[in-house]
Design a protein that fits this description.
About 40% of the residues lie in helices and about 10% in strands. The longest helix is centred in the C-terminal third of the chain and has 28 residues. Strand 9 and strand 10 form a beta hairpin. It has 5 domains: about 90 residues, Double Stranded RNA Binding Domain, CATH 3.30.160; about 55 residues, 2-Layer Sandwich (Double Stranded RNA Binding Domain); about 35 residues; about 70 residues, no CATH class; about 30 residues, no CATH class. The chain is mainly α. The strands form 7 sheets. A two-stranded antiparallel ribbon has the order 1-2. The chain has a two-stranded antiparallel sheet with strand order 3-4. The protein has 11 helices and 14 strands. The termini are far apart. One of its GO terms (molecular function) is DNA-binding transcription factor activity, RNA polymerase II-specific.
């Protein structure tokens, strides 16, 4: 009987790879290593796993694993002969070398009449030839010329039917001469023409609600028509530049109310008469500095006095006590 060798053929990688790194990632049928225990590359299972600590990458082919290992070692074996650029893959180097060549070096040229375009790959040439076979679907509403792509029609309008210097995306609103190089810039600009973009809902307006097209005009309206106002009656509707300053001012009222509450609780404990309580509260108010008055006079926070003899100046920071008096 004729003997037939049924052992599977060994798999040979297409590119040379670091054999040590690949062998450690191979999955075998049995425990005993050997050529007969290796499995052929799979297209559905990523069996070639990176063995570097902290890396969980896996690949279908050992050649891809070998390229990945180079990212850990830092090696870039494919060097450009024209410059100092280097790459991990040979395909990346091939694409880079084309940047050093002229347009005439492109091997695939279009043979259609009136077309002199050339391409690096046959796929790009085939895609270009399909445009010649298609009917142009973008027509200029001014001169009637047709184009295959919207970008070509847009460039045609800018060059032929608009003033010099106009960019690809002009504003369509009447009376606006702005134009932009990118579509998202035009999209952001069109929002400034929307007069209902920002609406003031303050109750003082009632049913007549004003709207604004820009954030700056809306903020100007808030500062002029609805400035931050102190709600306490003793301030007589005092306004502030911003809400932070109003917040700082309201702390003075809160401290004042706390002092009054503490005084009232002390009176309840001693059960003073109404007349005695009124006299004592008058003395407390007279001895305590008026915080609201200090705010109005601009003296609030000036708790650091000058150390020079005969100087009664006070400052908000201790570092100004020496600097300010030295100027005098």
């Amino acid at each position: 009987m004729l003997a037939v060798d049924i052992r599977p053929l060994p798999a040979f990688p297409r590119e040379p790879v670091p054999q040590l790194e690949v062998e450690r990632s191979l999955v075998t049928y049995g425990d005993a290593p050997g050529p007969s225990s290796r499995r052929l590359p799979s297209r559905t299972e990523r069996r070639f796993v990176c063995t570097y600590e902290g890396c969980d990458k896996a690949y279908f082919k050992p050649s891809r694993l070998a390229e990945h290992v180079l990212t850990h070692t830092g090696e870039r074996p494919h060097q450009c002969p024209h410059c100092d650029q280097s790459y991990i893959r040979s395909s990346h180097l091939k694409a880079h070398v084309r940047t050093h060549l002229s347009v005439d070096d492109k091997p695939y040229a279009c043979n259609r009449s009136g077309c002199d375009k050339r391409f690096w790959t046959s796929t790009h040439l085939k895609r270009h030839e399909q445009l010649h076979d298609q009917t142009p679907s973008f027509e200029c509403d001014t001169c009637g010329e047709t184009f295959h792509k919207a970008r070509q029609l847009r460039d045609h309008r800018v060059l032929e039917h608009m003033p010099p210097g106009t960019k690809a995306y002009p504003c369509p609103n009447d009376g606006c001469d702005w134009s932009f190089a990118l579509h998202h810039q035009l999209k952001a600009h069109l929002k400034t023409h929307d007069t209902t973009r920002y609406t003031c809902t303050h109750p003082d307006h009632g049913l007549d609600i004003p709207s604004f097209s820009t954030w700056s005009s809306f903020q100007t309206h808030l500062h002029v028509a609805h400035p931050p106002t102190c709600p306490h009656g003793e301030c007589h509707g005092r306004t502030f530049k911003n809400h932070q300053r109003l917040k700082d001012h309201l702390k003075v009222h809160a401290d004042h109310e706390q002092d009054v509450a503490e005084a009232i609780s002390t009176d309840d404990e001693t059960k003073e008469s109404r007349r005695a309580k009124k006299r004592r509260m008058s003395r407390v108010e007279a001895e305590r500095p008026n915080k609201l008055q200090r705010i109005k006079d601009g003296q609030a926070g000036k708790d650091f006095a000058c150390g020079e003899d005969g100087c009664e100046k006070t400052f908000k920071s201790v570092r100004y006590t020496d600097v300010a008096c030295a100027d005098w």
